[in-house]
Design a protein that fits this description.
This protein has helices spanning 17-20, 43-47, 132-135, 156-162, 222-228, and strands at 33-34, 40-41, 51-53, 59-64, 69-73, 79-81, 89-98, 109-110, 117-125, 142-151, 174-176, 193-198, 209-214, 218-220, 265-267. By secondary structure, the protein is mainly beta. The longest helix has 7 residues, at 156-162. It starts with 16 loop residues before the first helix and ends with a strand. The chain binds 2,5-bis(fluoranyl)benzenesulfonamide (KBB) and zinc ion. Zinc ion is lined by residues 95, 97, 120, 201. Residues 95, 97, 120, 201 line the site of zinc ion.
């Protein structure tokens, strides 16, 4: 299996990744189940509130990566500081994970409960590294803001993503984001969060992510989730390599890995 072929089916899914990506079998992997009874409050987190600045006009393109949709951002002008972070992190991209039905789809679970989807805003440590690619190789290189999505009202900001999905139906297709998307508008109202040291949840599963998962879920509609599942995992005009129904990307979440001896901290109730 060549490196490019990982996916979410039985043949190439999460339980096969360690063959080609040994880090996937590491001890600092993500996602994890958030066992809320294990979380420790930390006054140092309370004393340095999480702060962010995003530039909606800098959301440049949306692409079908073959593993989901991804909005690539011009990092300049963005910043994320505070909480568990040392230094300044810049926004690189955001994307989402979902399941074949709304009873599952998030990557992190909370006391064993799955949510319908999970939004990830990926940032890199611009205080120490030159770009996201370099930062991904260091334990303090990346931080990802995770937002749990539950079924409810239509999400207006995410609707701007959904309106572009027909233009990127097949793997490798990309299009300009003409109507600026404000990442800040996709975050929950209350900023309580859990944080722990983990990894990318996709190959090569680098153990370089400080995870910050907001406690309050944000709503998305069933129709919007159905739009995510209409993406195809293969290139237009090519045969569908995966054994998924019609090559539809109906599920792209990694099951949880053990937290092990890692600390799980929380900020806010
Ligand atoms: N799921 S993830 O936030 O760990 C992630 C981070 C990246 F930098 C690239 C791809 C990803 F899927
Ligand atoms: Zn992700």
């Amino acid at each position: 299996m060549s490196a490019a072929e990982w996916g979410y089916t039985k043949r190439n899914g999460p339980f096969t990744w360690a063959k080609n990506y040994p880090t996937a079998a590491g001890i600092r992997q993500s996602p994890v189940d958030i066992d809320t009874a294990l979380a420790t409050s930390d006054s140092s987190l309370e004393s340095k509130p999480l702060r962010w600045k995003y530039v909606p006009q800098n959301t440049r393109t949306i692409v079908n990566s073959g593993h989901g949709w991804r909005v690539d951002v011009d990092s300049e002008g963005s910043e994320l500081v505070g909480g568990p972070l040392e230094g300044t992190y810049k926004l690189q991209q955001f994307h989402c994970h979902w399941g074949s039905s709304s009873d599952k789809g998030s990557e992190h679970t909370v006391d064993g409960q799955s949510y319908a989807a999970e939004l990830h805003l990926v940032h890199w440590n611009s205080s120490k590294y030159a770009d996201c690619g370099e930062a991904a190789d260091y334990p303090d290189g990346l931080t990802v803001l995770g937002v749990l999505l539950k079924v409810g009202a239509k999400n207006p900001e995410l609707q701007k993503v959904i309106d572009l999905i027909p233009s990127i139906s097949h793997r490798g297709e990309k299009t300009e984001v003409k109507e600026a998307i404000d990442p800040a508008k996709m975050l929950p109202k209350t900023l309580s969060y859990w944080t722990y040291l983990g990894s990318l949840t996709v190959p090569p599963c680098n153990e370089s992510v400080t995870w910050i998962l907001f406690k309050e879920p944000v709503e998305v509609s069933e129709e919007q989730l159905a739009a995510f599942r209409s993406l195809r995992c293969y290139k237009r005009g090519e045969e569908c390599p995966c054994d998924e129904v019609d090559g539809l990307l109906i599920s792209n979440y990694r099951p949880t890995l053990p937290l092990g001896t890692r600390e799980l901290r929380e900020c806010g109730s």
